[in-house]
Design a protein that fits this description.
- This protein has about 110 residues and is mainly alpha-helical.
- The chain contains four helices and two strands, in the order αβαααβ.
- The protein has helices at about 10-30, 50-55, 60-65, 80-90; strands spanning about 40-45, 100.
- Strands 1-2 form a two-stranded parallel sheet.
- The longest helix is centred in the first third of the chain and has 21 residues, at about 10-30.
- The mean pLDDT is about 90.
Length: about 110
């Protein structure tokens, strides 16, 4: 998500995410003629160790989830699997050099 929008104090984190998008785009151009597609997933707030380390109690996690995007919840790691499978599938053969935003509507509300 930070390649699209960031917060104060997020310079290092956001620039690293934006660098990934540059890498994806360059690789898509470099390998496209070999029929290799290169894309990225841009997840929103996902319940990973990074999230739970920052908000260690269930009450804190529930409070944060109530403010997250259109779905008003934190995503689960396995929910990214569908997006990944779509990008890797034959249903998505014309998409390359892109970042698929899978953030539960978080950026829609910013």
């Amino acid at each position: 998500m930070h390649e699209h929008a960031t917060r104060p104090g997020g310079a290092a984190y956001a620039s690293s995410k934006r660098a990934v998008i540059g890498l994806v785009q360059a690789a898509a151009l470099d390998y496209g003629q070999q029929n290799i597609r290169v894309n990225a997933i841009s997840p929103g707030i996902i319940s990973t160790r990074m999230f739970t380390d920052r908000l260690p109690t269930e009450a804190q996690q529930r409070e944060a989830a109530a403010t997250v995007g259109g779905l008003k919840r934190v995503g689960q790691p396995d929910e990214m699997a569908g997006a990944i499978l779509f990008l890797a599938s034959d249903e998505c053969t014309y998409l390359t050099g892109a970042s698929l935003l899978a953030d539960g509507g978080l950026l829609a509300g910013i």
